[in-house]
Structure formats: structure tokens, C-alpha cells
Amino acid sequence: MAKSVTLYPLGVGDAFTARHFFVNCLINVDGREFFIDCPAYLGKMFHYNNENGEQQLELNRYRELFITHMHADHVGGLEELAYFQYYKTENPVKLYGPDWLLQDIWSHLRPALEPSVREGGGLANFDWFFDPVPIDHFHDFGDFKVSYTYTRHVPRTLAFKFDFGNFKLGYAPDTGFDHNLIAWLNECDLIIHDAWFGETEALGGNIRNLHTPIADLLTLPEDFQRKTLLCHYADTAYSDSTENPSEEIGAYRLLQQGKVYKLV
């Protein structure tokens, strides 16, 4: 059972944000830290955070990392992180996900990372940069337990449930509206959930196949709303303060970038 758990969002914005950084966060469990997702612009994100956030962070804090899916706003920083650890720390980051996702990550990174710059040349392996750890739908990490399911999103995307013994956190930053997922998350004490502000019709298709409009979220019971923080939102979600969203959001609140949330 955890004595202390904090959630620290480094980014809260959608894939087109210019105001925030892409959705990702750091979780601290009794001093053990892990990140969820690794978006592009890591250096700029950390620099901005250290000037404006409630915690000071450095890239060498990445020791354990969960990935939700392969969109660039969630994995765009992996190459940067790989080179950082290779040249600066020589200490591969533990990378967690189902086996198929770990294979997809290496397929994505391989053209850039495989050619070796070591004396004598040769080809690099995935484990030069990361320590890939396949996890099943349920995995016991000792300090906490993790389970995952799939969301309504493309490509295949994970939602996580973290069980700290005395507190459960649900994390679904990219998903269309899905009653089965809502039921799966509902046993959690705090939920981080995708939110779409604005029109749902787009040139590429219906946004509901990827994200969850506010109108759909408002159909859920108030007790679910009160324990849910909304993320992956557009720059237009609020003007001057997250306390004053641009649309009526019921009992939900907007997740705040650079704010420490004490869970336990």
C-alpha cells in the first residue's frame, strides 16, 4: 500500500496544440517514478516546465516509461530520449507495453537508431537504448499493479489502470466515447480522460471515432464527472483560466499542466 502518490502532468494538449505540450505525465509512488508517454519537444517541454511548473525536472529522471500508442504526440520524443540515455547516461530506460507495441516502437525507431556509431560500426539493437519489458493485461510491479484495456482510437491504444493499494488511477488520454471503457474506469478514485471541445465533424471523418466530445461526457453520472479530470483538450478549451472553460463541462475539471496532484 502506497504512502505517497503524486501525479504531475507535463502536458495536457491535443495533437494540434500550440498553447500546451502534448499529453504526458510523471507519477511518483513512494519515490519510484514512472512516466506515461514521451511526446516530441522534450527539451523545450522540460525547459518550460522548470520555469513555470511546480516541480523541477531533468531528462535523466526518465527511468521507467509506459506508452499508450504510436501517435507522434505520444511517442515523438522516444528517439530524442534514446540518444540522450545512450550518450549521456548509458542506462537504458525501462519501456513497458504489450509485446506488439514494443515491436512497433522499435520498427518506428529502427531506421534512425540501428546504424551504429561505435568504433567498428555494426548495427544497434533496441536494448542499446531501452530495456523493453512486455506486460500482460495485468502486471504486478511490486509497488503498484497495472492493468490495461483498449480504447476507441486508432492505431491500437491502451488505457491504463494503476492500483496503488489504497488508491486507483484510471488513465485514458485518447479515446472515443465508449460505455465499456467508462465502466472499466469507474472503479477508480481518479480518472484522466480524453475531452473534445468544438465541432465533431472534420474533413477526415467523425471525431467521435477518435475522441470524446463534451456533449457525450455530460451524459455520464455526476459522481463519475466529479472524479474525472479532462485532458487532450484544444487550445480553445479555455481563455484565461482552466477554472473557466469555454464550454459547460458539468462537474468535470480540466487537467492542469505543471500542477502537482497529490493522490495519496
Automatic annotation (TrEMBL):
One of its GO terms (molecular function) is metal ion binding. InterPro entries: RibonucZ/Hydroxyglut_hydro. Pfam families: Anti-Pycsar_Apyc1. It comes from the Bacteria. This is MBL fold metallo-hydrolase. The lineage of its organism: Bacteria, Bacillati, Bacillota, Bacilli, Bacillales.
